[in-house]
Write a structure and sequence with these properties.
mainly alpha; 2 domains; about 0% strand
C-alpha cells in the first residue's frame, strides 16, 4: 500500500502523466474546457484498471478537476463524493482522503454550500494537526481554508479561536513576511472587525 501511495503522489511528475496536465510545447498547465476534455480522456484511458489502482484513482481526480475548471461544480461534486466513498471503501490512507476532502469542500463553497464546506474543512484541519502537527504547511493551509469559510458564515468567534493558535506558529515557522503568515493575519483581522460582538480591544487588535 505504501508503494502504491508513493507512486500516486509522484504520478504527476511522470512524463506519461504530465500530458494530462501540462502542454508539452509551452509547458503551461491546461485550464478551462481543455482541462475538462483531457480529464474525461484521462478517465477513459484508465477506467478499466482495478478500483484500487493508483492510475484509476488519479484519473478520477482529473475528471473532477476538469469539471471544476469548466465551471461544472455540481458534476465535480458528484465525482468527488464518489471518489471519497471509493477511497474509504478500499481503505486508502488518511493523506489521500484529505486531498479529496479538500476538493470536496472547495466544490461545496463554489456552490454556496458554505456550512457543508466548513464541516469538512474543520475535519481536515483537525486531522492535519493529528497527522502532521501544528507546524506543518498543510496544517497552516487547512487552517486558512477553514477560517476563510468561517468568515463567510460570520462565525467570527471560531475564526478567532482557530487563528489565535495558528498565527504564532506561522510567524515562528515561516516568518513575519511570508505570504501565508500575512494571509492568516489578514483573516484574523477580518474575523475581529466583522464580529458583531467585537470589543474595543478587538477592534484595536484588528488594526
Amino acid at each position: 500500500i505504501l508503494f502504491e501511495e508513493a507512486e500516486e503522489n509522484n504520478l504527476d511528475l511522470e512524463p506519461s502523466w504530465r500530458r494530462w496536465n501540462t502542454c508539452s510545447l509551452c509547458e503551461q498547465s491546461y485550464h478551462g474546457v481543455v482541462k475538462h476534455a483531457l480529464g474525461w480522456a484521462c478517465w477513459k484511458t484508465y477506467v478499466g484498471r482495478p478500483e484500487a489502482d493508483w492510475t484509476r484513482r488519479s484519473a478520477m481526480r482529473q475528471v473532477a478537476n476538469g469539471l471544476s475548471a469548466a465551471g461544472h461544480h455540481e458534476d465535480a461534486l458528484t465525482v468527488e463524493e464518489a471518489q471519497l466513498s471509493m477511497l474509504r471503501r478500499i481503505g486508502a490512507s488518511e493523506y489521500n482522503i484529505l486531498g479529496v476532502q479538500n476538493n470536496l469542500a472547495a466544490s461545496y463553497a463554489q456552490l454556496g454550500r458554505h456550512d457543508e464546506a466548513s464541516r469538512i474543512q474543520g475535519d481536515v484541519y483537525h486531522v492535519h494537526v493529528k497527522l502532521n502537527g501544528e507546524e506543518h504547511i498543510g496544517t497552516l493551509l487547512a487552517a486558512l481554508d477553514y477560517a476563510t469559510t468561517l468568515i463567510t458564515l460570520d462565525r467570527c468567534q471560531e475564526v478567532k479561536s482557530v487563528l489565535r493558535k495558528t498565527m504564532p506558529v506561522a510567524r515562528r515557522v515561516l516568518g513575519e513576511g511570508n505570504d501565508l503568515t500575512l494571509r492568516l493575519r489578514w483573516n484574523y483581522a477580518k474575523g475581529l472587525y466583522k464580529n458583531s460582538a467585537a470589543t474595543l480591544d478587538d477592534l484595536r487588535e484588528a488594526v
